[in-house]
Structure formats: structure tokens, C-alpha cells
């Protein structure tokens, strides 16, 4: 299994600040299963660029407000 | 747990049990004969029917328990998990077939070649189900 990229996300926090949007509702909005949203939130899955943009659009924020690259050497 | 992960658990378990039953029967027959037993179509047919019946019944049960999830199409993560598990299981199958061919080259035992191919098919499928579960749990 490939090493996980140092990507973190704020999907859970953004859901909570958007009227406590459920994982199922977000999953429906971006066209994935609820299990995939859970995997994204837990950092077990990095979504495709398309899904990443869809998530950002659902919350009305930019991509870098949702996802961030945490490796200080590459910043 | 997603529908695909539940399916992988069930199929992995069913195939492991069926495969063990089939191969243990072949082993017992071979020991009784003192040489590699020839392929027995009746045995293979019975194992296949049992496997298919078990798969159908168990999938009906998990689909009825959560119809919405069962009807949902594969998303990008499902596709990635299934593709990666299928890719690695292909190596298991390839290794088994390769071992079977070399066995035939040196020992000229066609019956053993047949059983190695069947065993490799079973092993590669079990590996695919196990890896599917692993990738769903640990990430891809």
C-alpha cells in the first residue's frame, strides 16, 4: 500500500458549521457513498480532484480552505 | 460497512469454505489412490452450485437489509479499491498458473496441473476479497 500523502481536510468542521450537514447529505451532494465521506474525513481516502472541487463548492469555499498539504518541506 | 465490503466478507468466507472442502476431497482421493486424483466434474459442479446458491441467498439478505445501499452505484473509492484488489489478485493467479506449468514441465502430471489451476483460481479470488476488505479499512 502506498504511503498516505500528508493531506488533511476540514470536511467534518465545515459540515458542522453548515447546519450540521449529515455525512449522507454531503455524500449525495457530491455523488459518492456515505462510507467514502467517512473515509475522507478520517484521512483514509484522498478524493479525486473533481470530488474535492464538489466538496468545496457545497460549502462555498475555496479548495485550500477544505484541503491542505501538511508536509513543511514541500510548502 | 459498505455493500461491497459486506459482499467481500461473505464471498471470501463462502469461497474459503467451498475451496477448502473441494481441495480436501481431492487430497483425500489422491491419498486413497496413491497418485494425483483426476478431475471429478461432479465434485466441481457440486462445489460451484453450493457457492452460487450461498452467494445468491446471502446477497439477497444483505440487499434486503439495506436496499438503498445495495442499489447505489460504485463510486470513485469503490472503483479504486476493487481495481487495486483485482490487480494484486491477478499476480496470485499468475504465480499459481506459472507454478503449475513448471510442475507439468518437470513432472508431466496433468491432473496435478488441473488441481493447481483450480487452487490458484480459488486463492486469487480469496486474495481479491481479502484485499478488498483491507483497502476499504486501511485506505487506498
TrEMBL record, chain A:
Residues annotated as domain HTH cro/C1-type: 11-66
GO molecular function, one term: DNA binding
Entry annotated with the keyword DNA-binding: yes
Coiled coil regions in record: none
Domain of life per record: Bacteria
Xref: SMART domains: HTH_XRE
Alphabetic keyword roster: DNA-binding
InterPro entries: Cro/C1-type_HTH, Lambda_DNA-bd_dom_sf
SUPFAM superfamilies associated with the record: lambda repressor-like DNA-binding domains (SSF47413)
Annotated Pfam families: HTH_3
Xref: PANTHER family: DNA-BIDING PHAGE PROTEIN, TRACRIPTIONAL REGULATORY PROTEIN-RELATED-RELATED
Protein name: HTH cro/C1-type domain-containing protein
Organism listed in the record: Hyphomonas beringensis
From TrEMBL, chain B:
Key words, A-Z: Membrane, Transmembrane, Transmembrane helix
Residue ranges that the Swiss-Prot or TrEMBL entry lists as coiled coil: none
Superkingdom of source: Bacteria
Pfam families on file: DUF2178
Membrane-spanning intervals of the chain: 7-23, 43-64, 85-106, 112-136
Annotated protein name in UniProt: DUF2178 domain-containing protein
Gene source species: Hyphomonas beringensis
Amino acid at each position: 500500500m502506498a504511503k498516505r500523502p500528508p493531506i488533511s481536510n476540514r470536511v467534518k468542521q465545515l459540515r458542522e458549521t453548515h447546519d450540521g450537514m449529515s455525512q449522507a447529505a454531503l455524500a449525495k451532494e457530491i455523488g459518492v457513498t456515505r462510507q467514502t465521506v467517512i473515509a475522507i474525513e478520517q484521512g483514509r481516502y484522498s478524493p479525486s480532484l473533481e470530488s474535492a472541487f464538489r466538496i468545496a463548492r457545497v460549502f462555498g469555499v475555496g479548495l485550500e480552505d477544505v484541503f491542505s498539504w501538511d508536509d513543511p518541506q514541500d510548502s | 460497512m459498505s455493500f461491497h465490503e459486506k459482499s467481500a466478507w461473505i464471498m471470501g468466507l463462502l469461497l474459503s469454505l467451498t475451496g477448502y472442502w473441494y481441495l480436501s476431497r481431492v487430497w483425500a482421493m489422491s491419498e486413497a489412490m496413491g497418485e494425483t486424483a483426476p478431475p471429478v466434474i461432479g465434485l466441481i459442479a457440486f462445489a460451484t452450485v453450493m457457492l452460487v446458491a450461498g452467494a445468491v441467498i446471502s446477497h439477497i439478505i444483505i440487499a434486503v437489509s439495506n436496499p438503498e445501499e445495495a442499489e447505489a452505484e460504485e463510486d470513485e473509492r469503490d472503483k479504486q479499491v476493487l481495481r487495486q484488489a483485482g490487480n494484486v489478485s491477478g499476480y496470485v493467479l499468475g504465480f499459481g498458473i506459472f507454478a503449475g506449468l513448471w510442475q507439468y514441465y518437470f513432472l508431466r502430471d496433468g491432473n496435478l496441473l488441473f488441481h493447481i489451476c483450480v487452487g490458484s483460481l480459488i486463492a486469487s479470488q480469496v486474495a481479491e476479497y481479502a484485499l478488498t476488505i483491507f483497502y476499504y479499512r486501511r485506505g487506498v
